[in-house]
Amino acid sequence: MEFAYDFRGRLYYSALSIRAATWLTVAMMVSSLCSQQAHAVAAAPITAYSTQPDGVVIEVLTVGDEHRSWQETPAGYTVARNGDGEWIYLLPAKKISDGLAMVRARQGVGDKPMVDVSDQIIAGTTAKHFRPTRLSGSLIPPAFHAEATIQSRAVIARSPGHRTNTILQRKGDVPLLVILAYYDDAMTDNCLKCRTTTVSAVRQQFFASVQDVKSVRNYYYEASNRSIDILPAQENHGTSDDGVVGWLRLGAVTPSATADFVSALKSNKIAADALAAAAQYVDFTRYDSNADGQLTSNELGVAIILAGYELAYNRDENGRILGDDRTTPRIWGHSYSFYFGQSALPTPRQMVDDRTVTVNTVSHGTTYSILAERHGDHSATLGIIVHELGHMLFGLPDLYDTSGSSSGVGVWSVMSYGSWGQSTGDRYSGETPSLPSAWERQALGWVTPVAPSPGAVLQIATAASDSPSIVKISTDTPNEYFLLENRQYRGYDKGLERLLGGADFGGIAAWHIDDSVGTPSRNDDNVNASRKRVDLIAASGDQALDDGTNKGSRGNLYYAGHVAQLSDITLPDTKKYSGKNSGFGMVGVSLSAPFMSVEILNYPPQLAPLSEVMVANGGDIAFTISATDANGSTPIIGVVDVPPGGSFDSAANRFSWPADNITNGHIITVVATDALDPALSDSATVEIRLGSAESPTQSSDSDVKKNGSSGGGGAVLFVQCLLLVFVILRRFLIRSMCVCRGVSSRMQSGCVSTQSFLIQRCRRRCADPYSGVRQHHAPYPRQT
Fold first, then answer.
1. Are the beta carbons of 60 and 150 closer than 8 angstroms?
2. Strand partners, 378
3. Which residues does 495 contact at the CB level (< 8 Å), separation at least 6?
4. What's the CA gap between 302 and 505, in Å, rounded?
5. Sign of the CA dihedral running 750, 752, 754, 755
6. Cα 396 to Cα 458: distance, rounded to the nearest angstrom
7. What mean pLDDT do residues 200-204 have?
8. Phi-psi sector, 167: left (phi>0), alpha (psi -120 to 50), beta
């Protein structure tokens, strides 16, 4: 006999099916003070049309995600409906009482809006991509409070102290159950094709394994470097064990059917109804692999396809914005779990024979994904599905900016705007989602990164190859490191074609990673544009991803003929978030190709500042020499021409000279040599002077004679600029470089741009080149 739960605290018997399973007895959870952030998907980069009350047709674009979205014109100006149903512009205003200026939208709405002559004075020039403030009586005009077009309600709240899925390094077979579900109100006059997607089409989209067919299974097989195989769950509905159950009727009315946001109640109610309807066809207890009584998405993934429209796509079958239709059910695709503390709905439970399993609760991570059936006039495309499964099955966070203030990583990951990829031959956005970035693939254990030695020349295979390459360069800061990968127009990355405006792209993507960023349960890994968890270092040096100007460009990648070097002193640079040098650099990036070569920069060591030593007659001399290497290796320190009677302890790096042997004016040459490349070194000279002092003293740093620096602060800072010159010129067999002292850090930041331009800039800025400096291979030419 089967049990089902009616969500009003009562159990009732269903005489329609007799089987050994008992479904949905209630285990009421203790309400928790913590809460979970649902994982959603970024809005599709497509426009829809709407009509003003006077009949004028306007075009709008939805921006944001399930937690916070708004509309913009194609030109980028933010609009919303007022209480009279008119589309108006939202503009920053000086008048605090109203907070926003309102301007009537007209035909030609893509143009910069005119401002109404009223008491709401616009503060300066109208800005594009104005992001509405979260709903608040002090910031949103009263007429907007009842509107659903501006979203940021407490939909599925955020709170620390709650665990979501951790990033799981899983490999092998991953079972997945797909439930096709509907409520009676889905079949409206405005959605004549709702609930018409065939089971065979869904089966093909999720589980097809034929080569070149775009499916969930093939996508993750390629993205995981053949480590993951998404397999259909066992069930006995329709075609047994094909992983698809449905279409199943869930009831008469879709919960919060036309709301433009997803509450915990709506999400949990739909999921519970779907699982209850599917229970007679699926033995969930068989998937409780660790027998702990909790069914997690690590054991069985559940994807629910709900009849109705996808809010992330935000178009009906006629191309109108969904806000114009208040009858057809819609939902924003998301991943979540059962959480009594927010929805007050009990967690589904199944009993089969002597086995009992509770379908996952919030304390165990994300349980299910809910996706809408229709994207406007067609069935849902692949991108949003693999994006949501990235959350549910693998614990990946959103890599777009969930606050809406920037573009996050843009199109360069399926966990960002890459989920809407489209290539030649595709009819719709999302048919060819881009691959996960290097960060996801190495975090999930799908590709083992190469950790190169400084000076190494590497061959990096494209991310879409059979043997993809990822290069990882660590820093001395825990959790902060850099990744390199090769992105080309191949495989699923062909979906970048439409997003980047063409197929002629390719090159090295350089990533700055800080795994200490992000709060568990808040899905806020990339909300701070100045310190993201995963940040693309755009080769072009622009801030378009950070300020939200675009979602990515071909100029983001490194390749010969565009930008072929990156280091602590280039623009952009590889400095750590602390502002200190990371020690990572690359030069000699090759032309764009499926295999690209990169040389990892090996910085020379740097001696600590030394100076002239004054010693009293009859006194001994002893001092310790130290040096550092930006690459993390330990330099080899030595003293050239140790004077008679003097000694150098190489273990302690300490020079000593007894008083009875000291010669006035003697010059000691100190050398620090790179442990990996003897050709890279730093040297300085120290002059010994006899005086009346009773003990050794050191003069100012300006008295030192130092190769590559003057021994002072500005010169020490400038040594890396000199190094990059040396590496590049040595590569092209040019044996001269400029040597400067007293150069400010601001001047250094622009010192290196391109190989030919670099020398000219150094020479122009170095008005007082240092003379008489010892060079390790051949003397530097004196510059005049």
1. no
2. 375
3. 383, 418, 421, 422, 423, 426, 431, 432, 433, 434
4. 36
5. positive
6. 29
7. 98
8. beta
Whether residue 45 is found in the same domain as residue 15: no
**Span 256-292, pLDDT tens digits:** 998 878 888 999 999 999 999 999 999 999 999 999 9
In order of 138, 362, 505, 743, 750, the CA distances from 69 in angstroms are: 19, 25, 30, 48, 39
Vertex 735: Cα angle to 766 and 560 (nearest 5): 85
* Domain count for the chain: 5
The SS3 assignment for 484 reads strand
Distance, in Å, from the CA atom of 154 to the CA atom of 609, rounded to the nearest integer, reads 57
Strands, E, within 420-505: which ranges?
Answer: 457-461, 471-474, 480-488
Phi, psi of 200 (to 5 degrees): -65, -35
Token look-up 């309400």 returns 31
For residue 89, the tally of other CB atoms under 10 A from its CB is 26
Q: Identify whether residues 281 and 390 lie together within a single domain.
A: yes
Do 453 and 596 lie in one domain? The reply is yes
495 and 457 in a single domain? The answer is yes
- Name 387's Cβ contacts closer than 8 Å, sequence gap at least 6: 41, 333, 414, 415, 419, 433
User: To 10 degrees, what angle do helices 382-394 and 216-223 make?
Assistant: 60
Least Cα distance to 370 among 303, 309, 279 occurs for: 303
* DSSP element (H, E) containing 732: none
Quick count: other Cβ atoms within 10 Å of Cβ 145? 12
pLDDT at residue 41, rounded to an integer: 74
Residue 112 backbone zone (phi > 0: left; psi -120 to 50: alpha; other: beta): beta
Sequence-ordered alpha helix ranges (H) in 229-344: 264-278, 340-343
Compute how many other C-beta atoms are within 10 angstroms of the C-beta atom of residue 664.
Answer: 11
Q: Quote the CA–CA distance of 362 and 348 in Å, as a whole number.
A: 12
Cα(701)–Cα(715) distance, integer angstroms: 10
Do 254 and 378 belong together in one domain? Answer: yes
Is residue 325 one of the residues assigned to a domain?
Answer: yes
Asked whether residue 426 falls in the same domain as residue 568, the answer is yes
CB atoms within 10 A of CB 651: 5
Model confidence at 504, pLDDT cuts 50, 70, 90, reads very high
* 691: Cα within 13 Å, side-chain hemisphere: 15
* Three-class DSSP category at 491: helix
With a CB cutoff of 8 Å and minimum separation 6, the contacts of 24 are 3, 4, 5, 11, 272, 275, 276, 279, 348, 349, 350
Does residue 359 fall inside a structural domain? yes
Residue with tokens 């390094």: 169
Q: For residue 117, how many C-alpha atoms fall within 13 Å in the half-sphere facing its CB?
A: 0
Is the residue at 327 inside a domain? Answer: yes
Query: Which of helix, strand or coil describes residue 385?
Result: helix
pLDDT band at 482 (very low <50, low <70, confident <90, very high): very high
> How many beta carbons lie within 10 A of that of residue 769, not counting itself?
17
DSSP type of residue 242: S
Whole-prediction pTM value? 0.75
Other Cβ atoms less than 10 A from the Cβ of 272: the count is 22
Greatest Cα-to-Cα distance within the chain, rounded to the nearest angstrom: 109
The answer to whether the CB of 336 falls within 8 A of the CB of 41 is no
For residue 647, give both structure tokens: 């000694």
Please compute Rg for the chain using Cα positions. 32
Contact 462, 488 (CB under 8 A): yes
For the record, the structure tokens of 748 come out as 């250094």
Distances (CA, A) of 380 to 66, 315, 590: 17, 12, 39
